[in-house]
Amino acid sequence: MRYTAFAITTLLFFFGRPASAQINAARQLAYCTEQVKKTLRIIPRHGNNIPRSIVPGSSEWKFVGYKDWCSGFWPGILWYSYEATKSKTFLAEAAAFSSALKPLSAQHAFDHDLGFQIFNSYGNGYRLTKNPKYKAIILKTADTLATLFNPKVGTILSWPREVPGMQWPQHNTIIDNMINLELLFWASRNGGEKRLYDIAFSHAEVTMKNHFRPDYSAYHAVIYDRETGKKIKGLTHQGYADNSMWARGQSWAIYGYTVCFRETGNAAFLEFAQKVSDVYLAKLPADGIPYWDFNDPSIPNAPKDASAAAVVASGLLELSTFVKDKAKSQKYRKAAELMLTSLSSSAYQSRNKNSAFLLHSTGHKPNGSEIDTSIIYADYYYIEALLRLEKLQKGMKLN
Ligand code: GLY
Fold this sequence. Notes:
Blueprint: H1 2-15, H2 25-42, E1 50-54, E2 62-64, H3 73-85, H4 88-99, H5 114-129, H6 132-146, E3 149-150, E4 155-156, E5 171-174, H7 181-188, H8 194-210, E6 221-224, E7 231-235, H9 247-264, H10 267-282, H11 306-322, H12 326-343, E8 374-375, H13 376-393
Antiparallel strand pairs: 1-2, 1-8, 3-4, 5-6, 6-7
Helix pairs in contact: 2-3, 2-13, 3-4, 3-5, 3-13, 4-5, 5-6, 5-7, 7-8, 7-9, 9-10, 9-11, 10-11, 11-12, 11-13
């Protein structure tokens, strides 16, 4: 039923309106960079000053320090703002905010989030400036992340620490970890060791085998026996239930397997990226923005998650460039455009309410934290998706 609603809305949206009604990526990018300027005007210039989220009804950012898993998104947004505008101010701010994260490359890995942190900040910085100091930091961080790999299991230990409320004596891997593989793939083709590629490849393959239900929806976490490598069970930490489809978890799978295909050329990853996308698209509400968990029984009164929509939109735009079947490729491109159109409407953009780009993301519902808020990673993937869409609209390649 819901799939039918999504398909009909998509058809009406794209074929029932003139072409000029389609999203103007350049205009939405201009909106984003104006919001960034507003944040730069209010950000404190000392201490823990990396924006993370804004609660509904407020315009005040909650700021965090460099160790927070979200620390790379704000510098990443500044790099994307520089890419969109070529403004020297954004360049200087991007470099300054990235520099706060440098210690992460040199200390013990305390979780898998190093890719989110260092690749979104320094990774984008190196892509745009080719500064060799940035490259050295990225390579060092990749080696740090690799220390969490358990060869008996074949995956990275995502949380090598106590997780509040979760007693997991064994090896845990979370679906979010898929995003941090890009750092390893990149490092192995930019001067790092070949084993970094092998670790990322193994993680993606083992996860593909163990982390999904028969309908291709993802568990949030899988627990393995750290000695035998055997899967013990799949469960959730941030989703509604162990067997539910947590929207952002599925978004990490869609984005992650698309990157794995780009980096390896392995056809199994491309096929899998489509499978995990198709189950998500089939169950979406008509506006293309998911509820925080597809199985929350309080739907349609459950909170939405704009961040998952932004991640998926960005991932699907890239996936659409890899899929050879024209109809399927168009399906992914159009679905991403619908998501970006909804996100760019007054229902989802923050506009004068606060200086983030978007409203209505859900961070950790079971913990009661960051529910229906502006969250920095929604903004990061939104601006990334708009830049990708702009390139595609101009007939340019994404990478
Ligand atoms: N990586 C944590 C999250 O998706 O909330």
